[in-house]
Write a structure and sequence with these properties.
The complex is a heterodimer. By secondary structure, chain A is of the alpha+beta class. Chain A is 16% helix and 26% strand. Chain B is mainly α. Chain B: Residues 108-157 form the RNA polymerase sigma factor 70 region 4 type domain.
């Protein structure tokens, strides 16, 4: 998503529309509050000094701790206790880990994990991070070729502890050779690498893409558009055509077809949902196709609706305004 | 000086009331909570008038205060509702309609709520309050570069979380919400 799309999406959620005031200072309730405050009848529950009074345990780090940015305060306030092992006093657990499935070692402010066996039980990875005092749950899932090595989804329950006032590096991933050179999955010595900040607090859940094995369907987060450059349908547009029109073209390319029956919100505001209960509905030849995705190495999934909408719900308008082929 | 204080405060109050009430209402799930945040924010401003920057900077300073009040409030600090029935009722009007219209918006709202608190705040200050990086830096007491980096990451996380949560569409675009008539 582009920056503008993200911001537009966020704007949709505003209870009070952006740019509009919440209340009128001349309204009776506003006048009443003003009178209460200036008369000294209303005081806050406690003194809000220069720093936010946080949970008591924050205070053991001393005043300096309280002067960190709001990010750090919020992280600590979320209930995270930073154990002594992570404070760099030498009493903590090991700083590296190695097994046949995964190697992890510390490089400056990051832990660098090399996933040597992407098919291992995810608990193996979790245990490995656990020995370093981190709660990191890595799921390595099948993904379309263009998404191999990428973080497909990231969930953080907690945050990153700031160290020495520096903004911590966030996590990153990729397919890399031992010296850090980017490489293609399947080459010798080319591993999936995940970098995690040493100051991670709470839990990190991350899904990383690996190549699909024969017969495997891509993880939900590992799909990509099939009709753009590099896709299995590159050069063939399916958007706004009927199912009857595109199916023969796709089958001609030796690909199988599945469907995603999209649910479009009233007034088609852009975007769509998938109602699992409606996916068994038989798709008619006159249904409208809005886009095609890679769902497995030999299969594309058509995003369809049973009626034609004023604009493509996948793109919130014509595909051309978004995808520049 | 003291005799000028109520008038000076009232000027700031009138200038910023609409923005601070909107700020609180956008972030609180109930009108009572929003009313608490507005009232506490202005009560703090009244007692810290000396620190209140002049002109347009005042609202940025108040956003920063409101943010801290909100953080404390959400931690379940004591509430101060006495003598405020009328004010609370005024805030309630803002909650008559939920912004979470439609299936997608409900999902988007859930995803948004699941983001780290700081991500939400940065995204909101841009999209809801319409602040630029410099203004956000002032309001949150961060460097502009820190705002730039954190905002970039927040947008990226939101984008990924949306994809993960079933607001699915193609990776080149995903969701392009049509502009609501605002």
């Amino acid at each position: 998503m582009s920056t503008d799309e993200i911001d537009a999406t966020t704007r949709l959620l505003a209870r009070v529309e952006p740019g509009k005031p919440g209340g009128d200072p001349s309204a009776p309730e506003a006048r009443a509050l003003l009178v209460l405050i200036t008369a000294g009848d209303f005081g806050p529950a406690e003194e809000h000094g220069g720093a936010v009074p946080g949970p008591r345990r924050v205070r053991r780090y001393g005043p300096q701790r309280l002067l960190l940015g709001l990010v750090a305060v919020a992280v600590l306030a979320a209930g995270v206790v930073v154990g002594p092992s992570l404070l760099g006093n030498g009493l903590g657990p090991a700083t590296s880990y190695a097994s046949s499935d995964i190697d992890i070692r510390r490089e400056a402010d990051l832990y660098v994990a090399r996933i040597k066996n992407p098919y291992a039980d995810h608990q193996r990875y979790r245990e490995a991070f656990g020995t370093l005092g981190l709660d990191v749950d890595v799921r390595v899932v099948p993904a379309a070729p263009r998404k191999v090595g990428q973080e497909l989804s990231v969930g953080v329950h907690g945050g990153v502890r700031e160290s020495s006032g520096r903004t911590p590096e966030w996590l990153s991933s990729g397919m890399e050779e031992p010296d850090g050179t980017p490489c293609m999955a399947g080459q010798d010595g080319c591993y999936l690498v995940l970098r995690v900040p040493v100051g991670l607090t709470g839990q990190l859940v991350v899904r990383l893409g690996r190549p699909a094995r024969a017969g495997e369907v891509y993880d939900e987060a590992g799909v990509t558009t099939a009709t753009t450059a590099g896709g299995t349908l590159a050069g063939y547009r399916v958007d706004e055509k009927t199912v009857g029109e595109v199916v023969p073209e796709i089958e001609k390319r030796g690909l199988k077809i599945t469907y995603l029956i999209a649910t479009v919100a009233p007034e088609n505001p852009g975007g769509y949902g998938m109602d699992p209960d409606k996916q068994d509905t038989p798709v008619g030849k006159d249904w409208i196709v809005w886009e095609a995705e890679e769902s497995a190495p030999d299969t594309v999934r058509l995003i369809v609706t049973d009626e034609r909408y004023d604009k493509n719900p996948v793109y919130g308008g014509p595909r051309d305004t978004v995808v520049k082929d | 000086m003291d005799s000028e204080r109520p008038a000076a405060f009232e000027a700031v109050y009138r200038q910023t009331y609409g923005q601070i009430t909107a700020y609180a209402a956008r972030r609180c799930d109930s009108p009572q909570d929003a009313a608490d945040v507005v009232a506490e924010t202005f009560a703090i401003a009244w007692r810290r008038m000396d620190e209140l920057p002049p002109g347009d900077e005042a609202v940025l300073w108040l956003y920063g205060v409101a943010r801290k009040v909100l953080a404390n409030h959400l931690r379940g600090e004591a509430r101060r509702r006495a003598h405020r029935a009328e004010f609370d009722a005024g805030m309630a009007d803002l909650y008559a309609a939920s912004p979470d219209r439609g299936i997608e918006l409900k999902v988007i709202a859930e995803v948004f709520r699941s983001l780290p608190d700081d991500d939400r705040e940065l995204l909101s200050l841009v999209a809801w309050e319409g602040l630029d990086r410099r203004q956000i830096a002032t309001a949150l007491g961060l460097s502009r570069n820190a705002v730039r980096v954190r905002l970039h990451r927040a947008r990226r996380r939101f984008s990924r979380a949306l994809t993960e949560a079933g607001i699915r569409s193609t990776p080149e675009c995903r969701l392009v919400p049509a502009e609501r008539s605002l």
